[in-house]
Structure formats: C-alpha cells, structure tokens
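Q: What structure does this chain adopt?
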Amino acid sequence: MLPLVEAKLFSCTQSVELAVKIAESFGQPLGKVSLSKYSDGEFRPSYNDSIRGKRVFIIGSTNPGSDNLMEMLLMLDAAKRASARHITAIMPYFGWARQDRKDKPRVPIGAKLVAKLLETSGATRIMSLDFHADQIQGFFEKPVDHLFASSLFLPYLESLNLSDLTIASPDMGGSKRAYAYSKYLNSDVVVCYKHRKKANSVDHMDLVGSVEGKNVVLVDDMIDTAGTLAKATKLMMDKGAKSVRAVATHPVLSGKAYENINNAPIAELIVTDSIPLKKGMTDKIKVLSCGNLFAEVMKKVHNNESISSKFLM
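A:
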C-alpha cells in the first residue's frame, strides 16, 4: 500500500454549508482560504496554510453563474502552484453538463470544455454526484469517481412503505435510471414522452404505461424550472394516480420553479443538498444531505481503498 500523505479539505464559497458537513463526517475541520476581490468583481483565492506534498480536496459545485466554476478553477490552480501532491475536485453538482453533445450545428460541447479546464487547472481526480449524462466520465483523462444519489434516495423511498409503487421517468433519456430504481424496488415503471421546442419549455407530453391506482415516484437527475415536473404530475393525477412524488438529485430551481412546485399536485419533492436551496420557499421539498456519502468516499480514496461498495446503481 502506498504511504499516506496528509489530507486537507477546502471549500469554495458557494458550497460552504455542505463542505462543513463533509468535513465533520470526514473527521477534520476545513482549511482556511482567503478571498480577495477587486472593485470590478475579479477575485483571487489563497490558501492560508502550506499544502506542499498534501492530498487536497476542494469542495465546490459549479452551478451557474460562472463565478462558481471560475472559483473552482482558481482554487485548483493555486493548489497546483503550491505543490500539492494530489488535488481532487469535489463537485457535488457538475455544472454545464447539459451541453454534453452537439445537438445542432455550430454549438459548443460545454461539458467537455469544463472537463478540460478542470484538468488544465490542476485536478488530478474528479468526484461528482449523478452526472447529467454518463458519457461525461469519458471527457476526462484523470480518474473520475461518479457517485449515485440512489444510495440516499432508495432507503428513504423504502421507509415510506408505499403500496402499488410505480417508478416514472420524466423523459426517454432518464428511462435507464428509472428502470434501475424499479428493479431495486421491485416495482412497475412508466415513461413520459415530451417534446420541446426550446430549452426549459415542454410543448407536449404523453405517458407510456399505466399509473391508475398507483403511487408514483418520478426519478430525475436535476430539477430546473420544474415545468416538466408540474406537467408530469398533473398528467399522472389526471390518469388516475393515487399520489405523485419526485426525486431529483440537483435542485437547480431557477425561474418560476418554486411557484411551479407549489402549484403542482405533487406530494413531495426529494432532493440532495448538492446545490444550496433558498430557505422557506415551499414545504413540499425534502432535503437529504450527501455530505456523509462524499466524506465516506473521500476517506476511501485517501486510504487507497476500494469504493465499489458505494455504487448501488
């Protein structure tokens, strides 16, 4: 076994609340980082202690705005230039991931660009939760630990003891995830078919499968404006469902998301704290922390141990 080096944990400003939970579970406090700002908005992070020869974990989701991604890149670059031996970018939410392919001419592949920026900045390992698309792992030349929120959601769903359970995917692209949940929970599965004319706007939605008399759980990797969620829950209730719940790993919740959730006939929306939530916007949201999950995997990575036991799906 390789000799261990000292581990140091640091947080970007957008993820301090989650980073504190991770550090407590990991068993050591967060390291200190100073952030100086210029009057035009430019900023510069600096580590207050030596990290030479250390294993550095930098915790920060890269959800828009772009300052969150820029802060992670600057933290990585600073760690590289301070001679850290290992530099792991811990990104509970990997932003810009919806741009994972060219779906029309003359557009970028933003997720690939971000991957290259992270590696160029100094990341020697990447750890994230529920990529928007599995192929994003292939955009990196460095090791990637792709964790699954199913290890949090499945025990919670089992604890609800829902009868006549059916798992639903909000679109064809999420059907693989829905089938994996249904297999674990030994339940039926249905799929929504939706047509978009533009991003964040669903023009038409149909349901493949029956939900009559069922308690339905929609499964997705993120929830943005909650427009799809609102349409899907209404469609399923109109088709005779007993109740509709949803699990979504990343609560982006932009635009009229909270209004859409409050107005939708949904019993509960279950999310993680990969992205900080606005407080008190709705009582329909249940938050499960991913802090312990990241801390446990970080410990195993630090101790050069297998992490395969953490992959339920």
